[in-house]
Write a structure and sequence with these properties.
This protein has about 375 residues and is α/β, with parallel strands linked by helices. The protein contains nine helices and 15 strands.
């Protein structure tokens, strides 16, 4: 059995699901149904078993069922390595979501210690051709899967940067106002950069362990302008030296918030942004699988995977290769598609559910295979 998997999931007034319960084992989960039936809502619920705002990056208020929007609740039995945790997360009337682990109030940081969840959703298919901030978020999610504390370090850096940017916009020129903030940015920024570099190396190494013909991406962490300062002292010097330029721009122009993840389709030597839609999707899947493989090697167990509309842009042979990789990883991968036939190559290796919608209310039912 996988090291991380949900044995039970219950939904109450979450998105289009007024109520629902799924009893599960550790095998991959195939959810099929027409567009708009509520398949992605199930995946979003599972994504909330990890820290943050979930795969849609939505507010707690946006997750509430309509009409009414009085609140929602998700509960699940999570197998986490050699332990079992009862997890509940909910929001009352749009308030910030709350969390209990084994009946005790807990923080999202604590959730990151007991669960590992990775995802790939259709909005990420354009990752290689859109702005760098999306690629930074993608890399930071991967980095947090290896180092949960990366989230706290990133928040500390961003808080200091926002305060520094406020000084810059107000045209404050007294260096004493900047000293403590730049020191905080240097300390946390250097940690962010080091964590990201370590994650990129792990991805690079894990891609070589693929058992099928998924493409390999050559990865590089670059600065959008100039070179990324390497280390705390270099970053602190760079922030000080850039202060007059930053005053003119009204924002900080140096630091890990200016980094970008660059990828090249190794077999062709073609940048990911210039690849076909199918190749870009295959590269993303390759990185998600490499992330799962690296975590499995590091922790002794793979994470939960959420793959929304995973069959889109994949031909039949690559789809079959994906399923073979998932089964080789022994991960509970949650996958959605418009028809059960898209998962035929999985055979008895998966568990199957049909998602339907009637008058805006979704339901989930197990189907035999």
């Amino acid at each position: 059995m996988p090291g991380f998997y949900l044995a039970q999931l219950t939904l109450s007034h979450f998105r289009s699901h007024r109520s629902g319960r799924m009893d599960l084992d550790g095998r991959p989960v195939a959810l099929s149904g027409p567009n708009g039936a509520g398949k992605t809502n199930v995946l979003e619920a599972v994504s909330l078993f990890s820290p943050g705002r979930g795969l849609r990056r939505a507010s707690a208020e946006e997750m509430a069922g309509r009409p009414g929007a009085l609140g929602w609740k998700i509960a699940g039995t999570l197998f986490s390595l050699n332990q079992v945790h009862e997890i509940e997360t909910w929001s009352d009337a749009g308030a910030a979501r709350q969390l209990r682990i084994n009946s005790k109030p807990a923080s999202q940081v604590a959730l990151g210690r007991v669960a590992r969840v990775l995802w790939l959703v259709p909005s990420m298919d354009r990752l290689w051709i859109e702005a760098a901030d999306g690629r930074r978020r993608f890399l930071d999610r991967i980095t947090m899967s290896f180092v949960p504390a990366h989230a706290e370090v990133t928040l500390a850096y961003e808080k200091a940067m926002r305060e520094r940017n406020r000084l810059l916009k107000d045209q404050v020129r007294d260096s004493h106002w900047y000293a403590a903030l730049e020191q905080q940015m240097a300390v946390n920024g250097a940690m962010i950069h080091a964590n990201r570099l370590a994650a990129v190396k792990k991805l690079h190494d894990a891609q070589k362990e693929a058992r099928t013909a998924f493409p390999v991406a050559e990865l590089d962490l670059i600065q959008t302008e100039g070179e990324m300062p390497n280390g705390e002292s270099d970053l602190l010097d760079a922030l000080r030296e850039s202060r007059f330029r930053d005053l003119a721009a009204g924002r900080s122009l140096v630091g890990p918030h200016r980094a970008d993840l660059h990828a090249v389709f190794a077999a062709k030597g073609v940048p990911a942004r210039d690849c076909s839609t199918g190749e870009q999707k295959a590269l993303l899947l390759s990185l998600i699988l490499a992330n799962a493989r690296a975590l499995s090697q590091e922790m002794g167990a793979p994470p939960i995977l959420l793959l929304d509309e995973v069959a889109a842009h994949l031909d039949a042979s690559r789809r079959a290769a994906l399923y073979d990789e998932i089964c080789a990883l022994e991960t509970q991968a949650w996958m959605t598609g418009t028809g059960a036939e898209l998962f035929a190559d999985l055979g008895g290796r998966a568990q199957y559910f049909d998602v339907t919608e009637n008058s805006g209310i979704s339901s989930v039912e197990r189907i035999s295979h």
